[in-house]
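If you are new to this repository, start here. Below is one unmodified record pulled from the training split, so you can see the exact layout before writing a loader.
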Amino acid sequence: MVIELTTAYEAWFQQVNEELAAAPSRNARVKPTVENIESGAVDFKALAEETRRRLNASLEKGQTLAKSCAQQRKSRESKPARGRTMRAKN
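And here is the target side for that same chain:
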């Protein structure tokens, strides 16, 4: 494809370039840096809330696991031993 570089084409190309640069990208994930937080590109409160939610979920998961392990240990201790409990005397 051959394109003639006319002034009209260059003006159109410049305009399209500016429009594309101004439009936010669809799936671009902005890194949570100090500069981006200060400029407003990243919502710090939303990031903090997401972190708090993840930490609470992790804490609850650990507590649930610890409770189930404690219950299993308790049930094992309360059951009598199976089989011979004392050595036979010869």
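Two things worth knowing about this chain: The chain has three helices and no strands. The radius of gyration is 33 Å.
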